[in-house]
Amino acid sequence: MGQHRRARSRRHRLLAPSLFTALSAVVVAAVVAGTHGFNLSDASAAGKEARSARTVVSAPASSPAATTAAPAPAADTTSSAAPTPTDTPAPTDTPTATAPTAPASTAPAAPDVRTATFGATAAAPADDRESSTVGALFSGPVGPGDHFCTASVLHSATGNLLLTAAHCVSSPSGVTFAPGYRDGTAPYGTWQVTAVHTASGWSQNGDVDEDFAILETAPNNGRNVEDVVGGNKLGTDEPFGATVRLYGYPADAETPSLCTNTTAEESAYQRVIQCPAYPAGTSGGPWINAATGDVVGAIGGYQQGGDSDDTSYSSYFDHTIAALYTQVEGSAP
Prior knowledge:
The protein is an alpha+beta fold. It has a single domain, classed as Thrombin, subunit H. The protein has helices spanning 19-33, 129-132, 200-205, 225-229, 319-331; strands at residues 121-123, 134-138, 147-154, 161-164, 176-179, 191-198, 213-217, 243-248, 257-262, 264-267, 270-274, 286-289, 295-298, 311-315. A six-stranded antiparallel barrel has the order 2-3-4-7-6-5. A five-stranded antiparallel sheet has the order 1-9-8-12-13, with no helix packed on it. It has a three-stranded antiparallel sheet with strand order 10-11-14, with no helix packed on it. The chain starts with 18 loop residues before the first helix and ends with a helix. The model is unreliable at 1-45 and 51-113 (pLDDT under 50).
Protein backbone atom coordinates (compact mmCIF):
# COMPACT_ATOMS: atom_id res chain seq x y z
CA MET A 1 0.00 0.00 0.00
CA GLY A 2 2.95 2.32 -0.44
CA GLN A 3 1.70 3.74 -3.73
CA HIS A 4 -0.47 6.82 -3.76
CA ARG A 5 -3.33 7.12 -6.15
CA ARG A 6 -3.20 9.61 -8.98
CA ALA A 7 -3.57 13.33 -8.30
CA ARG A 8 -7.10 14.34 -7.41
CA SER A 9 -9.02 17.36 -8.63
CA ARG A 10 -11.73 18.32 -6.15
CA ARG A 11 -14.73 20.49 -6.82
CA HIS A 12 -14.68 23.91 -5.12
CA ARG A 13 -17.97 25.46 -4.26
CA LEU A 14 -16.78 29.10 -4.20
CA LEU A 15 -14.62 30.59 -6.96
CA ALA A 16 -12.74 33.91 -6.50
CA PRO A 17 -14.91 35.26 -3.64
CA SER A 18 -14.86 38.93 -2.83
CA LEU A 19 -13.40 40.07 0.47
CA PHE A 20 -16.88 40.60 1.90
CA THR A 21 -18.04 37.16 0.82
CA ALA A 22 -14.94 35.52 2.19
CA LEU A 23 -15.35 37.21 5.58
CA SER A 24 -19.02 36.21 5.63
CA ALA A 25 -18.10 32.59 4.87
CA VAL A 26 -15.67 32.55 7.81
CA VAL A 27 -18.37 33.77 10.19
CA VAL A 28 -20.93 31.26 8.88
CA ALA A 29 -18.42 28.40 9.03
CA ALA A 30 -17.61 29.23 12.65
CA VAL A 31 -21.29 29.09 13.57
CA VAL A 32 -21.90 25.81 11.70
CA ALA A 33 -18.80 24.11 13.11
CA GLY A 34 -20.04 24.75 16.64
CA THR A 35 -23.09 22.54 16.08
CA HIS A 36 -21.49 19.23 15.20
CA GLY A 37 -19.01 18.33 17.92
CA PHE A 38 -19.87 16.13 20.90
CA ASN A 39 -19.77 19.29 23.03
CA LEU A 40 -21.99 21.89 21.39
CA SER A 41 -19.96 24.69 22.94
CA ASP A 42 -16.76 23.52 21.27
CA ALA A 43 -16.63 25.52 18.04
CA SER A 44 -13.41 23.80 16.98
CA ALA A 45 -15.09 20.39 16.62
CA ALA A 46 -15.56 19.17 13.06
CA GLY A 47 -16.74 16.01 11.43
CA LYS A 48 -18.89 13.25 12.90
CA GLU A 49 -16.69 11.60 15.49
CA ALA A 50 -17.87 12.25 19.03
CA ARG A 51 -15.11 13.80 21.13
CA SER A 52 -14.63 14.19 24.86
CA ALA A 53 -11.83 14.02 27.42
CA ARG A 54 -12.61 10.36 28.12
CA THR A 55 -11.88 9.22 24.53
CA VAL A 56 -8.56 7.38 24.44
CA VAL A 57 -8.47 7.06 20.64
CA SER A 58 -7.79 10.73 19.93
CA ALA A 59 -4.71 10.71 17.72
CA PRO A 60 -1.41 11.75 19.32
CA ALA A 61 0.67 14.48 17.73
CA SER A 62 2.52 11.89 15.66
CA SER A 63 -0.67 10.32 14.24
CA PRO A 64 -3.49 11.63 12.02
CA ALA A 65 -5.47 13.89 14.33
CA ALA A 66 -9.04 12.75 14.93
CA THR A 67 -10.18 16.29 15.77
CA THR A 68 -9.06 18.13 12.66
CA ALA A 69 -10.21 17.98 9.07
CA ALA A 70 -6.61 17.55 7.89
CA PRO A 71 -4.75 15.17 10.26
CA ALA A 72 -1.05 15.63 10.67
CA PRO A 73 1.30 13.21 8.86
CA ALA A 74 2.30 10.15 10.81
CA ALA A 75 4.30 7.00 10.49
CA ASP A 76 2.77 4.43 8.17
CA THR A 77 0.31 2.31 10.16
CA THR A 78 -0.67 0.17 7.20
CA SER A 79 -1.18 -3.39 8.41
CA SER A 80 0.26 -2.57 11.84
CA ALA A 81 -0.62 -5.46 14.10
CA ALA A 82 -0.84 -3.91 17.54
CA PRO A 83 -0.58 -6.15 20.63
CA THR A 84 -3.73 -7.05 22.47
CA PRO A 85 -4.51 -4.19 24.88
CA THR A 86 -3.81 -4.87 28.52
CA ASP A 87 -5.60 -1.90 30.08
CA THR A 88 -9.05 -3.31 29.27
CA PRO A 89 -9.83 -6.96 29.95
CA ALA A 90 -11.06 -9.11 27.07
CA PRO A 91 -14.86 -9.35 26.91
CA THR A 92 -16.29 -12.01 29.14
CA ASP A 93 -19.94 -11.71 28.21
CA THR A 94 -21.35 -14.60 26.22
CA PRO A 95 -23.31 -13.85 23.04
CA THR A 96 -26.97 -14.65 23.47
CA ALA A 97 -28.35 -17.89 22.14
CA THR A 98 -30.83 -16.00 20.00
CA ALA A 99 -28.14 -14.23 17.99
CA PRO A 100 -27.68 -15.20 14.35
CA THR A 101 -25.18 -18.05 14.07
CA ALA A 102 -24.33 -18.17 10.38
CA PRO A 103 -22.41 -15.44 8.53
CA ALA A 104 -24.45 -13.74 5.85
CA SER A 105 -22.89 -11.67 3.11
CA THR A 106 -25.87 -10.63 1.04
CA ALA A 107 -28.92 -8.43 1.53
CA PRO A 108 -31.96 -10.09 3.12
CA ALA A 109 -34.08 -12.07 0.66
CA ALA A 110 -37.34 -10.93 2.25
CA PRO A 111 -39.01 -7.71 1.02
CA ASP A 112 -37.02 -4.79 2.35
CA VAL A 113 -39.22 -2.63 4.54
CA ARG A 114 -36.26 -0.43 5.49
CA THR A 115 -36.57 1.60 2.29
CA ALA A 116 -40.18 2.62 2.93
CA THR A 117 -39.33 6.22 3.90
CA PHE A 118 -36.89 7.30 1.23
CA GLY A 119 -34.56 10.12 2.26
CA ALA A 120 -35.78 10.25 5.86
CA THR A 121 -33.97 9.15 9.01
CA ALA A 122 -35.48 6.83 11.59
CA ALA A 123 -34.34 4.30 14.16
CA ALA A 124 -32.84 1.18 12.58
CA PRO A 125 -34.91 -1.96 13.17
CA ALA A 126 -33.88 -4.29 15.96
CA ASP A 127 -33.27 -8.01 15.46
CA ASP A 128 -32.53 -7.44 11.78
CA ARG A 129 -29.71 -9.33 10.04
CA GLU A 130 -28.16 -6.25 8.48
CA SER A 131 -28.69 -3.96 11.47
CA SER A 132 -27.03 -6.50 13.75
CA THR A 133 -23.77 -6.15 11.80
CA VAL A 134 -23.63 -2.45 12.71
CA GLY A 135 -22.45 -1.44 16.14
CA ALA A 136 -20.97 1.26 18.32
CA LEU A 137 -17.31 1.72 19.30
CA PHE A 138 -16.52 2.36 22.96
CA SER A 139 -13.35 3.59 24.63
CA GLY A 140 -14.43 2.36 28.02
CA PRO A 141 -17.18 0.26 29.55
CA VAL A 142 -20.11 -0.43 27.25
CA GLY A 143 -22.97 1.70 28.47
CA PRO A 144 -25.14 4.74 27.78
CA GLY A 145 -23.27 7.79 26.51
CA ASP A 146 -19.88 6.08 26.16
CA HIS A 147 -19.79 5.40 22.40
CA PHE A 148 -17.82 7.69 20.10
CA CYS A 149 -17.99 6.23 16.55
CA THR A 150 -19.77 3.60 14.46
CA ALA A 151 -18.36 0.44 12.85
CA SER A 152 -19.69 -2.59 11.00
CA VAL A 153 -18.65 -6.20 10.51
CA LEU A 154 -16.77 -6.75 7.27
CA HIS A 155 -17.18 -10.20 5.73
CA SER A 156 -13.87 -12.08 5.60
CA ALA A 157 -12.41 -15.55 5.70
CA THR A 158 -11.07 -14.79 9.18
CA GLY A 159 -14.44 -13.60 10.49
CA ASN A 160 -12.91 -10.99 12.80
CA LEU A 161 -12.79 -7.77 10.75
CA LEU A 162 -14.59 -4.44 11.18
CA LEU A 163 -14.90 -1.38 8.94
CA THR A 164 -14.90 2.20 10.24
CA ALA A 165 -13.42 5.62 9.43
CA ALA A 166 -9.66 6.07 9.83
CA HIS A 167 -10.15 9.31 11.73
CA CYS A 168 -12.10 7.42 14.41
CA VAL A 169 -9.37 5.09 15.72
CA SER A 170 -5.62 5.65 15.82
CA SER A 171 -4.87 2.93 18.39
CA PRO A 172 -6.65 -0.29 19.36
CA SER A 173 -5.95 0.23 23.05
CA GLY A 174 -9.13 -0.09 25.09
CA VAL A 175 -11.50 0.02 22.09
CA THR A 176 -14.52 -2.28 22.21
CA PHE A 177 -17.13 -3.04 19.55
CA ALA A 178 -20.74 -3.82 20.44
CA PRO A 179 -22.77 -4.95 17.42
CA GLY A 180 -26.49 -4.24 17.57
CA TYR A 181 -25.97 -2.00 20.60
CA ARG A 182 -29.03 -0.15 21.82
CA ASP A 183 -30.40 1.28 25.05
CA GLY A 184 -27.31 0.50 27.08
CA THR A 185 -27.12 -3.18 26.20
CA ALA A 186 -24.99 -5.32 23.87
CA PRO A 187 -27.42 -8.08 22.81
CA TYR A 188 -24.83 -10.14 20.91
CA GLY A 189 -21.82 -9.53 23.16
CA THR A 190 -18.73 -7.36 22.73
CA TRP A 191 -15.42 -7.75 20.91
CA GLN A 192 -12.06 -6.19 21.74
CA VAL A 193 -10.22 -4.38 18.93
CA THR A 194 -6.64 -5.67 18.65
CA ALA A 195 -5.25 -3.94 15.55
CA VAL A 196 -5.93 -0.95 13.30
CA HIS A 197 -5.06 -0.97 9.59
CA THR A 198 -5.16 2.08 7.32
CA ALA A 199 -3.91 2.89 3.82
CA SER A 200 -0.58 4.66 3.51
CA GLY A 201 -2.16 7.83 2.10
CA TRP A 202 -3.98 8.30 5.38
CA SER A 203 -1.21 7.18 7.74
CA GLN A 204 1.44 9.32 6.03
CA ASN A 205 -0.51 12.37 4.87
CA GLY A 206 -3.99 12.27 6.38
CA ASP A 207 -5.45 11.90 2.88
CA VAL A 208 -9.23 12.34 3.23
CA ASP A 209 -9.69 10.18 0.13
CA GLU A 210 -8.39 7.26 2.22
CA ASP A 211 -10.37 7.91 5.41
CA PHE A 212 -11.24 4.28 6.08
CA ALA A 213 -9.84 1.69 8.48
CA ILE A 214 -10.08 -2.07 8.89
CA LEU A 215 -9.98 -3.28 12.49
CA GLU A 216 -9.12 -6.73 13.80
CA THR A 217 -10.93 -8.11 16.84
CA ALA A 218 -10.19 -10.87 19.33
CA PRO A 219 -12.63 -13.78 19.72
CA ASN A 220 -15.30 -13.57 22.40
CA ASN A 221 -15.37 -16.90 24.24
CA GLY A 222 -13.91 -18.58 21.19
CA ARG A 223 -16.32 -17.05 18.68
CA ASN A 224 -15.45 -14.44 16.07
CA VAL A 225 -17.83 -11.55 15.61
CA GLU A 226 -18.90 -12.62 12.11
CA ASP A 227 -19.78 -16.08 13.41
CA VAL A 228 -22.38 -14.45 15.64
CA VAL A 229 -23.91 -11.58 13.62
CA GLY A 230 -22.73 -12.10 10.03
CA GLY A 231 -20.86 -9.60 7.89
CA ASN A 232 -21.22 -7.35 4.85
CA LYS A 233 -19.17 -7.93 1.70
CA LEU A 234 -16.82 -5.17 0.60
CA GLY A 235 -18.02 -3.47 -2.58
CA THR A 236 -15.52 -1.59 -4.74
CA ASP A 237 -15.73 0.46 -7.94
CA GLU A 238 -19.52 0.61 -7.66
CA PRO A 239 -21.46 3.45 -9.36
CA PHE A 240 -21.72 6.80 -7.60
CA GLY A 241 -25.47 6.85 -8.18
CA ALA A 242 -26.18 3.87 -5.95
CA THR A 243 -29.06 3.69 -3.51
CA VAL A 244 -27.66 2.90 -0.08
CA ARG A 245 -28.80 2.34 3.47
CA LEU A 246 -26.83 4.64 5.77
CA TYR A 247 -26.35 3.58 9.40
CA GLY A 248 -24.86 5.49 12.30
CA TYR A 249 -24.95 5.93 16.07
CA PRO A 250 -25.43 9.57 17.08
CA ALA A 251 -23.33 10.27 20.17
CA ASP A 252 -26.35 11.53 22.08
CA ALA A 253 -28.60 8.57 21.16
CA GLU A 254 -28.81 4.96 22.28
CA THR A 255 -30.22 3.47 19.08
CA PRO A 256 -28.72 3.43 15.57
CA SER A 257 -30.16 5.65 12.85
CA LEU A 258 -31.04 4.46 9.36
CA CYS A 259 -31.68 6.43 6.17
CA THR A 260 -32.05 5.25 2.59
CA ASN A 261 -31.15 7.55 -0.28
CA THR A 262 -29.18 7.73 -3.52
CA THR A 263 -25.54 8.81 -3.40
CA ALA A 264 -23.83 11.24 -5.74
CA GLU A 265 -20.28 12.09 -6.83
CA GLU A 266 -18.76 14.86 -4.73
CA SER A 267 -15.37 14.44 -6.40
CA ALA A 268 -13.43 11.68 -8.11
CA TYR A 269 -12.79 9.96 -4.77
CA GLN A 270 -15.69 11.13 -2.60
CA ARG A 271 -19.33 10.06 -2.33
CA VAL A 272 -22.01 12.33 -0.87
CA ILE A 273 -25.51 11.60 0.43
CA GLN A 274 -28.33 13.72 1.82
CA CYS A 275 -29.74 12.16 4.99
CA PRO A 276 -30.99 14.29 7.89
CA ALA A 277 -29.74 14.08 11.47
CA TYR A 278 -26.34 12.35 11.20
CA PRO A 279 -24.33 14.27 13.83
CA ALA A 280 -21.22 13.48 15.89
CA GLY A 281 -20.82 9.79 16.64
CA THR A 282 -22.02 8.57 13.23
CA SER A 283 -18.52 8.59 11.72
CA GLY A 284 -17.60 5.15 10.43
CA GLY A 285 -21.22 4.21 9.76
CA PRO A 286 -21.55 1.90 6.74
CA TRP A 287 -23.12 2.74 3.36
CA ILE A 288 -24.77 -0.53 2.29
CA ASN A 289 -25.84 -0.83 -1.32
CA ALA A 290 -29.57 -1.61 -1.31
CA ALA A 291 -29.28 -3.61 -4.55
CA THR A 292 -26.23 -5.76 -3.76
CA GLY A 293 -25.90 -5.74 0.04
CA ASP A 294 -22.24 -4.70 -0.36
CA VAL A 295 -20.75 -2.03 1.88
CA VAL A 296 -19.55 0.72 -0.46
CA GLY A 297 -18.60 3.46 1.98
CA ALA A 298 -18.19 4.61 5.58
CA ILE A 299 -19.05 8.07 6.91
CA GLY A 300 -15.79 10.00 6.75
CA GLY A 301 -13.61 11.52 4.07
CA TYR A 302 -14.34 15.15 3.20
CA GLN A 303 -14.75 17.23 6.38
CA GLN A 304 -14.39 13.96 8.34
CA GLY A 305 -17.83 12.96 7.11
CA GLY A 306 -19.36 16.42 6.79
CA ASP A 307 -19.80 19.50 8.94
CA SER A 308 -23.57 19.43 8.40
CA ASP A 309 -25.79 16.92 10.14
CA ASP A 310 -27.80 16.53 6.95
CA THR A 311 -24.98 15.89 4.46
CA SER A 312 -22.56 12.98 4.79
CA TYR A 313 -19.47 11.97 2.80
CA SER A 314 -17.41 8.85 2.28
CA SER A 315 -14.11 8.12 0.61
CA TYR A 316 -14.76 6.25 -2.63
CA PHE A 317 -14.06 2.53 -2.31
CA ASP A 318 -11.79 1.36 -5.13
CA HIS A 319 -8.57 -0.65 -5.54
CA THR A 320 -6.97 1.13 -2.57
CA ILE A 321 -9.30 -0.32 0.06
CA ALA A 322 -9.46 -3.60 -1.88
CA ALA A 323 -5.67 -3.98 -1.59
CA LEU A 324 -5.76 -3.06 2.10
CA TYR A 325 -8.50 -5.63 2.71
CA THR A 326 -6.55 -8.36 0.91
CA GLN A 327 -3.41 -7.53 2.88
CA VAL A 328 -5.20 -7.51 6.24
CA GLU A 329 -7.12 -10.71 5.56
CA GLY A 330 -3.94 -12.44 4.44
CA SER A 331 -1.98 -11.38 7.52
CA ALA A 332 -4.68 -12.19 10.07
CA PRO A 333 -4.11 -15.35 12.13
